[in-house]
Amino acid sequence: MSVKNLVKNYGKIRAVDNISFSIEPGICFGLLGPNGAGKTSTIEIIEGITQPTSGEIFYNNAPRNRTFWERIGVQFQSTELFSFLTVRESLQTFMRLYRNQTSLDRLIQICSLEDIQHQDNRKISGGQKQRLMLAIALANNPDLIFLDEPTTGLDPQSRRHLWEIVEAIKRKGKTIVLTTHYMEEAQVLCDEIIIVDKGKIIAQGAPEDLISRKYAGQVIRLPQENISEHVRKILDSNQQFSWHLDSTRKFILIQSQTINDCIEMLMNNQVDLSRLAIRPHNLEDLFLQLTGKALRH
Questions:
Q1: Cα torsion at 185, 191, 196, 202 (round to 10°)?
Q2: Which of 21, 60, 150, 154 is the most buried (most CB within 10 A)?
């Protein structure tokens, strides 16, 4: 699938600004960006929910046609189901909408729904509902699957369980387009990503390649309360170091090419290192570096 010169205007606001990219078959492709970056508009245009202002979308080297919509599956971020139907009945209902169907029992097995298939939708948990919504997206045995923030609001165990299901789907040769705000999720699942900001693509490639091209050295993590204003000024004034708060805003992440020098500086300034952790750079570091650390609304 490929997108060529895609533009979407909402009045005077250009949400998608002439972007182009291609998605190879059989990979997990991540579409990332801060709030208001244009990623939701992009994905909705590709899915056919929203019409572009201009640009073209190709599937199997041809403009989208009826075949495209028959061969895709979509898991929306939020979907309401009939509460009085069981999980199994919900799947049967959606499967009847398609000429091309997968095996119901196989679908239940793939998405780990065996134990709850006879429960009403109103009685299942958030993680179970997300697995059901993924199963619905697979009801027509699609070749191309769109997952819109599939793990939002899930606990860590449910999130990792869904990752395992996504990996299993990918191993079957399916192509997955993933939007997520969890950088760890994108780094684990995606073979290739694009990062969109202000309607434009600002980075594209395999996550590990993008990280290695941007960074050398490692990251020191310390609780925010351990770092005084004096130490923060030292970090700001030394070009060997840079720092930012992590996504929880509880820890300071110090990026340094010379870990020993950084630790020596911290020790000389009586910083408590009892909760110090050292890790390699990750996709969250890159994302914040490229899109900024200010909160987006």
A1: 130
A2: 150
